[in-house]
Every structure is written in structure tokens, then in C-alpha cells.
TrEMBL record:
Residues 68-118, 163-182 are annotated as: Disordered. Pfam families: UCH. It comes from Cafeteria roenbergensis (Marine flagellate). This is USP domain-containing protein. It comes from the Eukaryota.
Amino acid sequence: MNLGNTCFFNSAVQCLLATQPLVRYLLEQRHHLETNIDNPLGQGGALAATFAALAQDVWDGMGLLDGPPDAGDVQVPGEAGAISEPGGAAGGTGPSSGVLGERTSGRPARPPQAPHQRALVPSVLKAVIARFAPQFAGFGQQDSQELTAFLLDGIHEDLNRVLEKPPTEAPTGDDSADDAELATRSWETHLRRNQSVIVDLFQGQLRSRLECPSCGQVSA
């Protein structure tokens, strides 16, 4: 369910909740074993726990953990129509959200719905995100990619397996090293400070290349 003009939030969260490896990790409660409550860059585990609770609400009763992953047999959460404004008869079923019982547009109330047809109100998750990213505190339009980056980074820091990060190493200028070697060094440096399910599933490397059309100088 959208809260005000927060379709950017809804679309990002639904995409993440349809990422089965991440959802399985959360539904199996593995995040409890890896919560880094002392990480000053995290939220003491609050963001990861809130997102996990929302995943539980969304996937409750859908049997995701009953068998091997098969995208063809699993209905994507959020296929029931979104509602554009908060309101109506909301009753919570979990710590992360409220569940809307019926629409308030004047149409007849729907009969009781299956778990995957409920409209969830992710207000608690939105509030937790706003703690470390206050630009998302209101109900105006924002950039969905920016929200996704903040959300993934926050969950990563809550679940970072590196309890004591080593000092950041300054990159060394070695003109003899090829791109593959430099990429390997850079990734190894990153992993010394960052290890989590978010790193495992979402992070990687990009290579950019810029060539001057006048002198032919290449920067990569």
C-alpha cells in the first residue's frame, strides 16, 4: 500500500521482497545470527529486523519455505492492487505493518482475502529508514533507486559480519597491473570491511572507461 506519494518506496520494497534468496534468508531467521548491533554505521539491527518482519507479513501462508525455490510456482507479493492514500480500517498483523481490511472508496467491501491478497502498510519500515535517511521522512515523491541504495546499505550495515573493520588502505598506483588484477585487489579490500547477505546478493564491481577524442588519453 502506498503512503501518500510514496510509490517510489512501494516499488523498491516489492522488488526486494520478490528476491527469493534474500526472502528465504529472512524467513529462516538467519539475520538474527548475523546482526551487528555495535556497528556505528548501522541501526543496531532495527532496520534488518523491521524488513524481516515485513517479509514475514508479506509471505505468510504462501509456502515459500515448503519446497525448493521455483519462481514459476511462487506468486509475487503485492499483486493485489495498491491503494493510493492511507486510511480505512487498518489492523496490524505484525510489528512491521498494518493490514487494510477493506477499501474506503464507496465500493462494497471485499470478502476475506488470502494472505497474499492483503494490502500491507509498511509505515514502521518507512519510519526506521527515515532515522538514518531523513530525506525519506515525508510523503513526497523521491527517487526509487536512491531509496533502494539507502535501504540495502542500511540492512548491510545491520548485518555486517565484519565486527572490527580494518583501516582503509589507500590505493597504490601500479602502472604494471592490468585491470583484472586491480579489480581483484579492490574487491578484496572491500570484502575486508564488508561481508553480509547484501554483499553476497547485490554488490559487485563496475568498470568505467573514458577516452579523450583529441589526444587519445584513456582513463579507466
